[in-house]
């Protein structure tokens, strides 16, 4: 486990990234501190900026403004820092013409902290033939190979960008199980970007909801669930919410409204019947709220209203 004084796995201040001549906004003023030793779920719709954030964390691209540190240093600051981070990109890319054994040799050549015993043990455990070419592997087998290569570096931080999205349920289950085994064995932090909330709920103890290029909410999963509630109240009751209650999303049905709220105190102390929220309800509530904000901006612009 990381030392108590270990720097955050990731720390961002005013992090902004724009692309192209027109400055398409991918991330906007992101402020975020992720403690070391956590398994972080990064969730949000397509185009929210998840891959951009992970690419910035790996040093694959540079921020437009703001700052970002990973394990206390600038991303990819030097060869030593690169070795401390393992990255599995979307579609778990590997070299199709290389055998599994050749992937292991390349990994050992490029990474000074390479652990051949760990690599060979894991390749054997998942039933991969070292002489087989990667191009002949199934999607689940390629994912296991990519995961093994990332973990055999013995990194302090593992980053996964939608690694299991294209896998069938059985292969995905095996991948997530091995991911958690690696995290425990290495004592590493991990960031898992996924739109599959069931996967995130299985393995992550820290959640970041990223929508509309901004962090909508982030924190310990248990704390977030404990601090939110689902309420059914008379319609119009929350036109002016009581002190200590923030309405995240609300749906109206007849004379009643169904609201997901965040409370400053225990939800059980509210003068309403409070029900616990699921992780899916919490994430969807923040995504719904984020989606409504750009729509409101667009409508205001169309009517010539001030922004």
Provide an overview of this structure.
By secondary structure, this protein is of the alpha/beta class. It has 2 domains: 212 residues, P-loop containing nucleotide triphosphate hydrolases (Rossmann fold, 3-Layer(aba) Sandwich), CATH 3.40.50; 76 residues. Helices cover 34% and strands 28% of the residues. The chain contains 9 helices and 13 strands. It has a 6-stranded mixed sheet, with helices on both faces. The protein starts with 9 loop residues before the first strand and ends in a 5-residue tail after the last helix. 36% of the residues are buried. The C terminus is likely disordered.
Features:
307 residues, elongated, alpha/beta, 9 helices, ABC-2 type transport system ATP-binding protein, 2 domains, ATP-binding, ATP binding
Question: What can be said about this structure in brief?
Answer:
The chain is α/β, with parallel strands linked by helices and 307 residues long. It has 9 helices and 13 strands.
Give the helices and strands, then pairings.
Layout: E1 10-19, E2 24-34, E3 39-43, H1 50-57, E4 65-70, H2 79-83, E5 85-88, H3 100-110, H4 116-125, H5 139-152, E6 157-161, H6 169-186, E7 189-193, H7 197-203, E8 206-211, E9 214-220, H8 221-226, E10 228-234, E11 245-253, E12 256-263, E13 274-275, H9 279-302
Parallel strand pairs: 3-7, 3-8, 5-6, 6-7
Antiparallel strand pairs: 1-2, 1-4, 8-9, 10-12, 10-13, 11-12
Could you say how many structural domains there are in total? 2
Report the oligomer. Answer: single chain
Radius of gyration: 22 Å
Q: Portion of residues in helices?
A: 25-40%
Q: Kindly report the average pLDDT value.
A: 88
């Amino acid at each position: 486990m990381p030392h108590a004084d270990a720097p955050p796995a990731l720390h961002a201040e005013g992090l902004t990234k724009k692309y192209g001549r027109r400055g398409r906004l991918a991330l906007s003023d992101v402020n975020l501190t992720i403690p070391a030793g956590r398994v972080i779920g990064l969730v949000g719709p397509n185009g929210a900026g998840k891959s951009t954030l992970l690419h910035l964390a790996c040093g694959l691209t540079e921020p437009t403004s703001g700052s970002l540190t990973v394990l206390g240093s600038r991303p990819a600051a030097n060869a030593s820092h690169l070795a401390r981070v393992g990255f599995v990109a979307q579609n778990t890319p590997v070299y199709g013409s290389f055998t599994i054994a050749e992937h292991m040799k390349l990994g050992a050549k490029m990474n000074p902290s390479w652990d051949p015993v760990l690599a060979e043990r894991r390749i054997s455990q998942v039933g991969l033939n070292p002489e087989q070419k990667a191009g002949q592997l199934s999607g689940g087998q390629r994912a296991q190979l990519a995961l093994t290569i990332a973990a055999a570096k013995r990194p302090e931080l593992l980053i996964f960008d939608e690694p299991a999205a294209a896998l069938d349920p059985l292969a995905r289950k095996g991948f997530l199980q091995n991911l958690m085994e690696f995290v425990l064995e290495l004592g590493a932090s991990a960031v898992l970007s996924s739109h599959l909330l069931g996967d995130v709920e299985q393995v992550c103890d820290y959640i970041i909801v990223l929508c509309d290029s901004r962090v909508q909410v982030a924190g310990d999963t248990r704390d977030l669930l404990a601090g939110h509630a689902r309420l059914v109240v008379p319609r119009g009751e929350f036109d002016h919410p009581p002190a200590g209650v923030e309405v995240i999303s609300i749906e109206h049905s007849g004379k009643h409204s169904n609201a997901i709220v965040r409370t400053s105190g225990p939800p059980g102390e509210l003068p309403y019947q409070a029900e616990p929220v699921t992780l899916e309800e919490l994430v969807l509530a923040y995504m719904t709220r984020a989606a409504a904000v750009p729509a409101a901006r667009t409508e205001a612009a169309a009517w010539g209203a001030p922004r």
